[in-house]
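My current task is to audit a protein record that another person submitted. Alongside the sequence sits a line of tokens, each denoting a local backbone shape. Please read both lines and tell me whether the tokens look consistent with the sequence. Do not assume that whoever made the record got everything right. Thanks in advance; the entry in question is below.
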Amino acid sequence: MDVDYDAKILKVRQEITFHNQSKDTLNSFVLNDWNNAYSGKNTPLAQRFSDEFVRAYHLSKKEERGSTTIVSVIDQNNRVLNWERPDNHPDIVQVQLKNPIYPNSKFSFYIRYAVKIPSAKFTEFGYTNDDSFILKDWYLSPARLENGEFIRYSNQNVDDIANGISDYELTLTVPRDVSVTSDLYVGNKIDKGTTIEYFLIGKQFNNFNLILEKKNSFQVYRNAVAEISTNLEDDRVSDIQKTLLIDNIANFVAEKLGRYPNGKIMVTQTDYNRNPVYGLNQLPSFLSPFPDTFIFEMRFLKTYLYANLKNTLKLDPRKDAWIYDAIQMYVMMEYVKEFDHDKKMMGKLSDWGILKGHNLFQLDYNDKYSYLYLLMARSNLDQPIGYSKDRLIKFNEQIAGKYRAGLSIAYLDNYLGNSIVPQAIKEFCILNTKQQTDGEDFEKLLKNKTDKNIDWFFTTVVGTRDAIDYKFGRVKIKNDSLRIKIKNRTGTNVPIPLYGIKNDSVVFKQWVENVTVDTTLTVASYNADRLALNYNNEVPEFNVRNNWKNLNNWFPNQKPFKFTFFQDIENPKYNQVFYVPSFNFNIYDGFSPGLRFHNKSLLQKPIIFDVEPTYSMKTGKLIGSASIIYNDYKRNDNLYNIRYFLSGSTFHYAPNARYVKFVPGIQFRIREDDFRKNKKQSIMVRQVIVDRERTNYIATDEQSENYSVFDIRYRKFEMEIKKVYNLNTDLQISKSFGKISGEIDYRRLFNDNRQINLRFFAGAFMYRSTNSEFFSFGLDRPTDYMFDYNFYGRSEDSGLFSQQFVMAEGGFKSIFETRYANQWMTTLNGSFNIWNWVEVYGDVGLFKNQYQSTQFVYDSGIRLNLLPDYFELYFPVYSSNGFELENGNYDQKIRFVVTIDPKTLISLFTRKWL
């Protein structure tokens, strides 16, 4: 292989010798060509980026993307072989053979091809800004053969290429100023003047790493386990400390998994960047919550385990991904138990006085695995850990699913005891050094080591997302025994441990099995004063708030209230109430400070209340809002959430004029079976009851002061980077009017990186018995009689705050003499980007008012889309009014979108995983 460093091209001459060790005759041969996944914007890899809202790839230039150009494919008899890329698999090459490959026979063929390396900014693999090549999955590799068929997986950026086990011999020619690092052995090195030729070799590999650098960034550590090359970045840890930590980790992992089979292993910054230690990478460095040595230790441990398991296990890495994750997380938890058991989840922040009262800062480091799994489970977004890796949403694939897998294997370990699970893991790793394996091999190995029935583990814990939740029923004390009723709230039949506690010490433990609905058992009391289910969190349980039973109190299940500043993670021992300073703003109330009380912890709860009283500085009166929500999550249904809500608010809508809004309602939320599809639907039914004080500032009548609107809204949306589609319909019934409306939003990002936005709105009155325009359709600004929008000056018809823009109803930016429609309205809004965040927009519309003929209007201008939905500016240029710049007072025609609400602003910075 020759390297053209400047052109970022690898010129490859490759010989593949295949030994058919299966019982099947093969007439074609399949190669993985994952580098060619970068060849276009419609490949499975590109679609994955689009689904996860990664803009960099779609906005990239052709020279930044990769490709593979095959020159020739010739068999051992010098015959040209036909080859093709199957439909929808541009990163797979199928070679049609002239003669079949019979069982136990060998076949050789030769390929010449050129590999254009992509930029590393997409996946961390490729060429970097400092002229390094970080190469993985770049060459044509034989696909894994299983049950007589080659596995055909496309590159979806989840590190799960299914290669056949191979022996590698690689001759590599690079410029002499380039350093070569690989987990293959360097067998020979020949200086050829301007270039250097390397000969690399490796046996029984799934894959290998190859890194070319102008300046070598790797350090090599040799110990009894392996030769370890690493370039993990951490200048705050000395070389001596690194040597001791690496030696300790390597020996610990060898004890748990057996001796590493390949001799050499690479622990790279790239692999860590792709899957960092969540938590360590979220806190700002200036806080320094953990010792530098611990940070390096955890980073190295996770990345070392990743590399070790990838090279050791000969599983299908997509279908059996949970086994990789389970072993990796389990060993990490065991390591912390042995060497870092004193560490807290938030490090030294637990010592800060202001934070000591927060449960989040008192939890042990290993508790994070349970809480981050529950973060998704409580949001009804968890998925079975046994799913193939490409079906998992990003947070599950990288964090929650991995943690659930580790918790699950630790659960099985606790249940079986006698070191059965760690022994099985070690034996399974050793088995993988001898043969290709699958998930059934792991299951058989575990079952052969115990007489207990563990079918539930593989069918339920691994194979489903069924939630586990047990609670106590009645408990009767009779002499020195206890008659205990245990209820299964979800019907998930798995073992649960029962504990007796006295003075915070465990006096007995018993595993309870086969509780399908409820069961009653009698146990010795051992003078316990409390009972607990799942006391040490052995079981990845959905709800631990109902796991306690006091035996000596008059009110055995009463939990004390605990008031906590800001927010905290759930503490099952208390009824938590959180309080935090807040503020609101509109020009009639002014700056309005307040105090918000709520019970929303970092984990979702079924019942959520939120009370936010604030003080209007401008009027000197109490204002604010309150709500209570009950979420009924349906675990295995497309109708995944029914939300019942009751809310109320009161603010001023004009000078010294208050409104009171009261809304009871219900919302049905629907999604696809495939969580990765960004498609959802919702139906909301609500009654909006409004009472407005009369004011001389604006004209009101009896119908617009006190009214009630029955509202049904249906929404359907589908979104990704390349395409966004929204459908909204709205039916409103009130005493004085009835109206129906709908809108369609469509956004398309084209391959030339141009983007078009289209929105169509149509609305009509079914009946109307009011002369007020208060309930009419707004052409450039809705009247917002249901107080759904955050207007800073909702009653203003002149001045800065009258220029606030909300994309609703007509959606026009220019202001016309007639601003409302009391019969019907249809409008079309569009925009097109001309440079980055600079867009041109245009609106056209027809509308009809009573006793007037139909009117046609239009406008156009420039939109500065500086921060979509948060900060935007609209500059009208030409409209039905004429040339907007000619009529004077142009500054009063500019429209703006500005968000200053803290809760809305926070959402801007929490969109990373959604």
Remarks:
- The first helix runs from residue 44 to 51.
- Residues 908-914 have pLDDT under 50 and may be disordered.
